[in-house]
Specification:
By secondary structure, the chain is mostly helical. The protein folds into 2 domains: about 80 residues, Arc Repressor Mutant, subunit A (Orthogonal Bundle), CATH 1.10.10.10; about 140 residues, Up-down Bundle (Four Helix Bundle (Hemerythrin (Met), subunit A)), CATH 1.20.120.530. Helices cover about 75% and strands about 5% of the residues. The protein has a two-stranded antiparallel ribbon. A hairpin with a 3-residue loop joins strand 1 and strand 2. Helix 4 crosses helix 6, helix 4 crosses helix 7 and helix 4 runs antiparallel to helix 9. It is elongated.
Protein backbone atom coordinates (compact mmCIF):
# COMPACT_ATOMS: atom_id res chain seq x y z
CA UNK A 1 0.00 0.00 0.00
CA UNK A 2 1.33 3.41 -0.94
CA UNK A 3 2.34 5.87 1.76
CA UNK A 4 -0.32 8.38 0.67
CA UNK A 5 -3.08 5.79 0.94
CA UNK A 6 -1.89 4.72 4.39
CA UNK A 7 -1.84 8.35 5.52
CA UNK A 8 -5.35 8.86 4.21
CA UNK A 9 -6.58 5.80 6.09
CA UNK A 10 -5.02 7.08 9.30
CA UNK A 11 -6.33 10.60 8.81
CA UNK A 12 -9.82 9.41 7.85
CA UNK A 13 -11.02 8.33 11.30
CA UNK A 14 -9.41 11.38 12.86
CA UNK A 15 -11.15 13.66 10.35
CA UNK A 16 -14.48 11.93 10.98
CA UNK A 17 -13.98 12.28 14.73
CA UNK A 18 -13.14 15.96 14.31
CA UNK A 19 -16.27 16.56 12.23
CA UNK A 20 -18.45 14.74 14.75
CA UNK A 21 -16.96 16.77 17.60
CA UNK A 22 -17.53 20.03 15.70
CA UNK A 23 -21.11 18.97 14.96
CA UNK A 24 -21.75 18.18 18.61
CA UNK A 25 -20.28 21.52 19.69
CA UNK A 26 -22.37 23.26 17.05
CA UNK A 27 -25.55 21.68 18.42
CA UNK A 28 -24.64 22.73 21.97
CA UNK A 29 -23.88 26.29 20.91
CA UNK A 30 -27.00 26.37 18.73
CA UNK A 31 -29.23 25.19 21.58
CA UNK A 32 -27.89 27.92 23.88
CA UNK A 33 -28.23 30.65 21.24
CA UNK A 34 -31.75 29.45 20.43
CA UNK A 35 -32.74 29.74 24.08
CA UNK A 36 -31.34 33.26 24.26
CA UNK A 37 -33.21 34.29 21.11
CA UNK A 38 -36.51 32.73 22.19
CA UNK A 39 -36.28 34.31 25.64
CA UNK A 40 -35.45 37.71 24.15
CA UNK A 41 -31.97 37.95 25.64
CA UNK A 42 -30.65 38.31 22.10
CA UNK A 43 -32.80 40.99 20.48
CA UNK A 44 -34.10 41.01 16.90
CA UNK A 45 -31.48 42.56 14.63
CA UNK A 46 -28.60 41.93 17.06
CA UNK A 47 -25.37 40.98 15.29
CA UNK A 48 -24.00 37.51 15.91
CA UNK A 49 -20.28 37.92 15.37
CA UNK A 50 -18.50 34.63 14.73
CA UNK A 51 -15.23 35.69 16.37
CA UNK A 52 -16.95 37.04 19.47
CA UNK A 53 -19.09 33.91 19.77
CA UNK A 54 -16.04 31.70 19.23
CA UNK A 55 -14.32 33.42 22.15
CA UNK A 56 -17.46 33.35 24.28
CA UNK A 57 -17.97 29.59 23.88
CA UNK A 58 -14.25 28.74 23.69
CA UNK A 59 -14.65 26.85 20.43
CA UNK A 60 -13.38 27.29 16.88
CA UNK A 61 -15.42 29.16 14.31
CA UNK A 62 -16.52 25.92 12.61
CA UNK A 63 -19.13 24.90 15.22
CA UNK A 64 -20.26 28.54 15.44
CA UNK A 65 -20.96 28.56 11.70
CA UNK A 66 -22.80 25.24 11.97
CA UNK A 67 -24.93 26.58 14.82
CA UNK A 68 -25.80 29.77 12.94
CA UNK A 69 -26.72 27.85 9.79
CA UNK A 70 -28.99 25.55 11.81
CA UNK A 71 -30.68 28.54 13.45
CA UNK A 72 -31.13 30.19 10.05
CA UNK A 73 -32.92 27.05 8.84
CA UNK A 74 -35.35 27.50 11.75
CA UNK A 75 -35.97 31.14 10.84
CA UNK A 76 -34.28 32.45 13.98
CA UNK A 77 -31.16 33.89 12.29
CA UNK A 78 -30.65 35.82 9.04
CA UNK A 79 -27.47 36.28 7.01
CA UNK A 80 -27.06 39.73 5.48
CA UNK A 81 -24.47 40.89 2.93
CA UNK A 82 -21.50 42.75 4.45
CA UNK A 83 -22.98 42.27 7.92
CA UNK A 84 -23.09 38.54 8.50
CA UNK A 85 -25.43 36.75 10.89
CA UNK A 86 -28.04 38.65 12.90
CA UNK A 87 -30.99 37.60 15.04
CA UNK A 88 -33.95 37.38 12.65
CA UNK A 89 -35.71 40.72 12.39
CA UNK A 90 -39.01 40.29 10.53
CA UNK A 91 -41.13 43.23 9.49
CA UNK A 92 -44.28 44.08 11.41
CA UNK A 93 -46.27 42.64 8.50
CA UNK A 94 -44.36 39.36 8.67
CA UNK A 95 -44.94 39.14 12.43
CA UNK A 96 -48.66 39.68 11.87
CA UNK A 97 -48.64 36.93 9.23
CA UNK A 98 -46.96 34.56 11.68
CA UNK A 99 -49.52 35.35 14.38
CA UNK A 100 -52.32 34.77 11.88
CA UNK A 101 -51.00 31.33 10.98
CA UNK A 102 -50.37 30.36 14.61
CA UNK A 103 -53.87 31.52 15.58
CA UNK A 104 -55.38 29.16 13.00
CA UNK A 105 -53.16 26.27 14.07
CA UNK A 106 -53.95 26.78 17.75
CA UNK A 107 -57.63 26.94 16.83
CA UNK A 108 -57.29 23.52 15.21
CA UNK A 109 -55.49 22.24 18.32
CA UNK A 110 -58.34 23.47 20.54
CA UNK A 111 -60.93 21.74 18.35
CA UNK A 112 -59.00 18.47 18.33
CA UNK A 113 -58.48 18.71 22.10
CA UNK A 114 -62.26 18.76 22.55
CA UNK A 115 -62.48 15.52 20.58
CA UNK A 116 -59.44 13.70 21.97
CA UNK A 117 -58.51 14.86 25.46
CA UNK A 118 -58.48 12.24 28.19
CA UNK A 119 -58.73 12.55 31.96
CA UNK A 120 -55.03 13.38 32.32
CA UNK A 121 -55.28 16.08 29.66
CA UNK A 122 -58.29 17.57 31.40
CA UNK A 123 -56.46 17.63 34.75
CA UNK A 124 -53.42 19.28 33.15
CA UNK A 125 -55.62 21.90 31.47
CA UNK A 126 -57.37 22.69 34.75
CA UNK A 127 -54.08 23.00 36.63
CA UNK A 128 -52.56 25.22 33.94
CA UNK A 129 -55.65 27.44 33.87
CA UNK A 130 -55.59 27.81 37.66
CA UNK A 131 -51.86 28.57 37.70
CA UNK A 132 -52.30 31.22 35.03
CA UNK A 133 -55.00 32.95 37.08
CA UNK A 134 -52.84 32.89 40.21
CA UNK A 135 -49.68 34.25 38.61
CA UNK A 136 -51.63 37.02 36.86
CA UNK A 137 -51.92 38.77 40.23
CA UNK A 138 -48.35 38.03 41.34
CA UNK A 139 -46.76 41.05 39.62
CA UNK A 140 -44.11 38.66 38.26
CA UNK A 141 -44.07 39.03 34.46
CA UNK A 142 -41.77 36.06 33.87
CA UNK A 143 -43.93 33.76 36.01
CA UNK A 144 -47.09 34.88 34.25
CA UNK A 145 -45.55 34.48 30.79
CA UNK A 146 -44.48 30.94 31.70
CA UNK A 147 -47.88 29.86 33.02
CA UNK A 148 -49.55 31.46 30.03
CA UNK A 149 -47.33 29.31 27.82
CA UNK A 150 -48.10 26.25 29.94
CA UNK A 151 -51.83 26.75 29.36
CA UNK A 152 -51.36 26.88 25.60
CA UNK A 153 -49.04 23.85 25.73
CA UNK A 154 -51.67 21.89 27.64
CA UNK A 155 -54.17 22.58 24.85
CA UNK A 156 -51.66 21.58 22.17
CA UNK A 157 -50.82 18.31 23.93
CA UNK A 158 -54.49 17.47 24.44
CA UNK A 159 -54.93 17.58 20.64
CA UNK A 160 -52.76 14.45 20.36
CA UNK A 161 -51.34 15.43 16.97
CA UNK A 162 -47.55 15.31 16.96
CA UNK A 163 -47.13 17.12 13.63
CA UNK A 164 -49.41 19.98 14.66
CA UNK A 165 -47.60 20.28 17.99
CA UNK A 166 -44.21 20.37 16.25
CA UNK A 167 -45.29 23.09 13.83
CA UNK A 168 -46.85 25.28 16.52
CA UNK A 169 -43.70 25.00 18.66
CA UNK A 170 -41.53 25.90 15.66
CA UNK A 171 -43.51 29.03 14.81
CA UNK A 172 -43.84 30.06 18.45
CA UNK A 173 -40.05 30.11 18.76
CA UNK A 174 -39.93 32.65 15.95
CA UNK A 175 -42.73 34.65 17.58
CA UNK A 176 -41.54 34.43 21.17
CA UNK A 177 -40.01 37.94 21.55
CA UNK A 178 -43.13 39.53 20.05
CA UNK A 179 -45.58 37.30 21.88
CA UNK A 180 -43.86 38.19 25.15
CA UNK A 181 -44.13 41.91 24.33
CA UNK A 182 -47.85 41.67 23.58
CA UNK A 183 -48.65 39.35 26.49
CA UNK A 184 -47.00 41.69 28.99
CA UNK A 185 -48.45 44.93 27.65
CA UNK A 186 -50.18 47.05 30.36
CA UNK A 187 -53.82 46.02 30.63
CA UNK A 188 -53.36 42.97 28.41
CA UNK A 189 -53.33 40.47 31.29
CA UNK A 190 -56.93 41.12 32.30
CA UNK A 191 -58.15 40.67 28.73
CA UNK A 192 -56.06 37.52 28.30
CA UNK A 193 -57.56 35.98 31.41
CA UNK A 194 -61.07 36.53 30.08
CA UNK A 195 -60.04 34.99 26.77
CA UNK A 196 -58.45 32.01 28.54
CA UNK A 197 -61.68 31.52 30.48
CA UNK A 198 -63.67 31.36 27.24
CA UNK A 199 -61.23 28.82 25.79
CA UNK A 200 -61.21 26.75 28.97
CA UNK A 201 -64.99 26.66 29.35
CA UNK A 202 -65.44 25.57 25.72
CA UNK A 203 -62.79 22.87 26.14
CA UNK A 204 -64.38 21.48 29.29
CA UNK A 205 -67.76 21.49 27.54
CA UNK A 206 -66.12 19.75 24.57
CA UNK A 207 -67.55 22.37 22.24
CA UNK A 208 -65.02 22.19 19.42
CA UNK A 209 -66.37 25.07 17.36
CA UNK A 210 -66.51 27.44 20.33
CA UNK A 211 -63.08 26.38 21.60
CA UNK A 212 -61.51 26.87 18.17
CA UNK A 213 -63.06 30.30 17.72
CA UNK A 214 -62.14 31.42 21.25
CA UNK A 215 -58.53 30.30 20.77
CA UNK A 216 -58.22 32.04 17.40
CA UNK A 217 -59.63 35.24 18.89
CA UNK A 218 -57.16 34.97 21.77
CA UNK A 219 -54.03 34.40 19.67
CA UNK A 220 -54.82 36.71 16.77
CA UNK A 221 -53.07 40.05 17.20
CA UNK A 222 -55.39 43.03 17.46
CA UNK A 223 -54.84 46.33 15.68
CA UNK A 224 -53.64 48.08 18.83
CA UNK A 225 -51.10 45.32 19.44
CA UNK A 226 -49.77 45.72 15.92
CA UNK A 227 -49.46 49.48 16.37
CA UNK A 228 -47.64 49.03 19.68
CA UNK A 229 -45.22 46.61 18.06
CA UNK A 230 -44.43 48.97 15.22
CA UNK A 231 -43.76 51.79 17.67
CA UNK A 232 -41.80 49.88 20.27
CA UNK A 233 -39.71 47.40 18.26
CA UNK A 234 -37.11 48.31 15.67
CA UNK A 235 -37.76 46.42 12.48
Amino acid sequence: MKTGAIAAQIAGPRADSSRKKAGSLGRDVGADLETQIVEGRLAPGEKLDEIALSNQYSVSRTPIREALRALAAKGLVDFQPRIGAIVAQPTVGEVMDLFEVVAEMEGVAARLACERMNADDRALLSAAHQACQETASSFDPDAYYKTNGDFHSAVHKAAHNAILLEQIEHLNKRLSPYRRFITLRPGRTEAALREHEAVFEALIARDGAAASQAMRNHVRVLAEDSLALSRSLRF
